[in-house]
Amino acid sequence: MKLLILDDDIQIREGIKNSVDWESLGFDEVQSAGDGLAGLVSARKMAPDIVLSDVRMPGIDGLDFLCEIKKIFPRIKVILISGYDDFEYLQKAIRYGADAYELKPVKIQNLLRLVEELKEKVIAEKISPDPVGSEKKNTPFADRRINQAAAYVHAHLSANLSIGTLGKELRMSPNYFCSLFRKKTGLSFNSYVNRTRLDASAYLLEHTDQRIYEIADNTGFRDSVYFTQAFKKAYGCSPSEYRKNRQKEG
Q: I need a labelling partner for 154 at 20 to 30 A (CA). Which of 67, 117, 118, 188 fits?
């Protein structure tokens, strides 16, 4: 999971960034920026899952940022933070696609509760037992342990994911975990990891300016040649062709 914090007050944004153990909450990358323009630049590079954004910022404010970021990343979750208890402003925030709204002074516990809720939504949307390219609506798995495994995969996509690692994480023997995962999803664990990585790489190709070798590395493909071959097999074209085609469509 990746988190981006926007606020023109450096004490506030760095305070939020450094006062919370984000890694323990499943966030392996946390970045911050001082205005909406810098936030858009950072977002294009890192592709955050959740954004905490102040409303009143110089240049591109929180509402303008919200409009733009939702165009680039339709599924991104945005919490707007405002010092104004203004109903009309809140209506605009909702209309523009804000996922939550928090008033200043920010109470960290309230903020963390919102972040946890949105994190669960993010996990529920990228998780699906359907094969790559399926047009069926993404839904969470029915089994809690499999949901935990899927959430771990999404949060550690660039790591070395193995049956042994997940079995240890869920306190199950590798053989039992492997059998349970296939029974509940219809997929082998390795197939699910590979498909999830390819889905993530396709998303990054379309919505970020990251170079192809960076995307391969960020999604857990250490060999760029293998990444290109696997991507072409799944999507029918190379990563560079996929990006060009999506840019033409956009």
A: 67
Distance between CA atoms of 12 and 33, rounded to whole angstroms? 11
The set of residues, in sequence order, having a beta carbon less than 8 Å from that of 225 and lying 6+ positions away, is none
Phi and psi at residue 2, in whole multiples of 5°?
A: -130, 140
Whether the model clears a pTM of 0.70, i.e. scores above it, the answer is no
Q: How many CB atoms lie within 10 A of CB 23?
A: 11
The 8-class DSSP code of residue 55 comes to S
Strand extents, DSSP E, 100-158 = 100-103
∠ Cα 31 60 211 (to 5°): 45
Cα maximum dimension of the chain:
56
Predicted confidence (pLDDT) per residue in 219-228, tens digit: 999 888 999 9
All domains in the chain, ordered by first residue: 2-125 (3.40.50.2300), 156-245 (1.10.10.60)
Tokens read off for 36: 């909406």
